[in-house]
Design brief:
By secondary structure, this protein is of the alpha/beta class. The chain folds into two domains: 131 residues, Nucleotidyltransferase, domain 5, CATH 3.30.420; 169 residues, 2-Layer Sandwich (Nucleotidyltransferase, domain 5), CATH 3.30.420.40. 43% of the residues lie in helices and 19% in strands. The chain contains ten helices and ten strands. A five-stranded mixed sheet has the order 3-2-1-4-5, sandwiched between helices. The chain has a five-stranded mixed sheet with strand order 8-7-6-9-10, with helices on both faces. β2 and β3 form a beta hairpin. The two termini are 25 Å apart.
Length: 332
């Protein structure tokens, strides 16, 4: 069984080919034009997807050694994401599927991040908890089976990825700021007192943390105009340490409430070296079995869409040509 997968939810155009559950290729075209704007510009992103999607699909098929006539189905990201970007992927999928007379499979982008854990070994056992952290989402998901997931904690305002990027903007770091903060944090110590928001239950909040960082830095810069420059590494270490503690404290709480010790992380922020290390240390401390995807499956990629699509293919869950992109698609 051969399946083509398409991912176009934000600013990365990606295509992957899967055969009988094994990913044969996972190709991504990144967009660099957004760096000068300090964030993704939706119109620029959608136009770039239009230019990239055919070359990326062609490359994925060639790398996999698969002809388009060999395909049995095509999976695609229906949402959530930027509507213009999603429409490019959905429109391409409809035309491609119709031309080959093969079925289509819609995939929720956030479900796919969770199922990225089944792209390679080791794989978590059901049930497991997955902390899914990205630029737009921060969630704790109870995963009972491939197609049976429940969000038990989510952000009530901003996501962890936004906290990294907006802090980076305050510090004058390039976009996306997360990797730069991660790199600089390794050179510093978490010595600055950024407070952890008090949010009941398993939900998250990062807007207050961002405000705390901004006001603290403004105060210190008034006292010393070179404060940020002189303390950049320690500031980054402090910010990263606090974001990680917020994430892990809620994850510990979720594990205690559910009694689950199979613990995973996913999403773009799961590529952060500090978070990966902290999860492994916490796992050893509490007797968890911890799972972290390979870097290529952390950020937006079609490989995870292929894994999710394959499970829906086996379940016979297909959609028709009347399917539409949905920017605010809820996780199921």
């Amino acid at each position: 069984m051969h399946l083509l997968a398409i991912e176009s939810s934000c600013d990365d155009t990606s295509a992957a080919v899967l055969r009988d559950g094994e990913i044969l290729s996972n190709c991504i075209a990144n967009q660099t034009a957004h760096a000068e704007y300090g964030g993704v510009v939706p119109e620029v992103a959608s136009r770039a997807h239009q230019m990239n999607i055919i070359p990326v699909v062609d490359l994925a098929l060639k790398k996999a050694g698969v002809q388009k006539e060999d395909l049995d189905a095509i999976a695609f990201t229906r949402g959530p994401g930027l509507l213009g970007s999603l429409l490019v992927g959905v429109s391409f999928t409809k035309a491609f599927a119709m031309s080959l007379d093969i079925p289509m499979i819609e995939v929720n982008h956030m479900n796919a991040h969770v199922l990225a854990h089944f792209a390679e070994d080791p794989k978590p056992a059901f049930p497991f908890l997955c902390l899914t952290v990205s630029g737009g989402h921060t969630q704790i998901v109870l995963v009972r089976d491939y197609l049976d997931m429940e969000v038990i904690g989510t952000t009530i305002d901003d996501a962890a990825g936004e906290a990294f990027d907006k802090t980076g903007k305050i510090l004058g770091l390039p976009y996306p700021a997360g990797p730069h903060i991660d790199r600089l944090a390794k050179e510093g110590q978490p010595v600055f007192p950024f407070t952890e928001p008090r949010i009941e239950g398993l939900d998250f909040s990062f807007s207050g943390l961002k405000t705390s960082i901004l006001y603290y830095l403004q105060k210190r810069v008034k006292e010393n105009p070179d404060f940020v420059k002189e303390n950049m590494a320690d500031i980054c270490a402090s910010v990263q340490s606090r974001i990680i503690s917020i994430l892990l404290n809620k994850l510990v709480k979720a594990a205690e409430q559910t009694g689950i010790k199979e613990i995973a992380i996913a999403g773009g922020v799961s590529a952060n070296s500090g978070l990966r290390r902290a999860l492994q240390e916490k796992g050893k401390e509490l007797g968890w079995n911890t799972y972290i995807p390979a870097f290529q499956y952390c950020t937006d990629n079609a490989g995870m869409i292929a894994v999710a699509g394959y499970r829906k293919y086996l379940a016979g869950e297909f959609v028709g040509q009347d399917v539409t992109a949905e920017a605010r698609l809820k996780m199921t």
